[in-house]
Amino acid sequence: MKTGKAVIFTGGLGPEPLKIRKIVEDAELIIAADSGWDLACSAGIVPGYYIGDMDSVDDHKGVNELPESNLLKFPVDKDYTDTELALKFVDDADYRDIVLIGGGGGRIDHLLAITSLFEKDPRPSEWFTAEEQVVFIERDCDLVCRIGQTISVFPCPGSSAVVSTEGLKWELENFKLTTGNYSLSNTALNESINIHVHTGAVLLIMNY
Predict the structure, then answer these.
(1) Domains delineated in the chain
(2) Can you spell out the DSSP letters for 131-197?
(3) Which residue ranges of the chain lie beneath pLDDT 50?
């Protein structure tokens, strides 16, 4: 049975250092995928493992100070991204919750590649960029938020879903989400919202 929380830092922009430290405080495993190492270190966090090809990371000295068993190097030319390799490593270690930090800004192809991770297994349960928190939901879920916070709901990539909500300005009632049909820039009316996924799975995006 899978238990525990693992955090993967990936390349790109992430939340401010204080928020990052709060996200990882209960993590049992912290991994950096390539330049995710630099993002982690900028928040004062030294990952326990490094996975990648070292083509983007700046702190080569810090990475190479890891024990050899915790330093998993791969060639630049490979079939999987460094983040995908980190996801597989975490899944093989039987962690239940996988939280991804980083991936904001930068190239749109990298952004789409990370988004596509949610249609595969293993997948992240949450993703934190510099501006948003993305939550994967496939059942009834209560989420803490701020009154007035912007909330968007999309179907999980490659699928459709039917959802109902409580606590939003424009409530969804048995609303069908598809690639071309989604809920964009809704507003939280309470300090918590409920998302009920009748079928499929969704990505709920909360702007900070």
Answers:
(1) 3-130 (3.40.50.10240), 137-207 (2.60.120.320)
(2) SEEEEEESS-EEEE--TT-EEEEEEPTT--EEEEEESBSS--SSEEEBTTB-EEEEEB-SSEEEEEE
(3) none
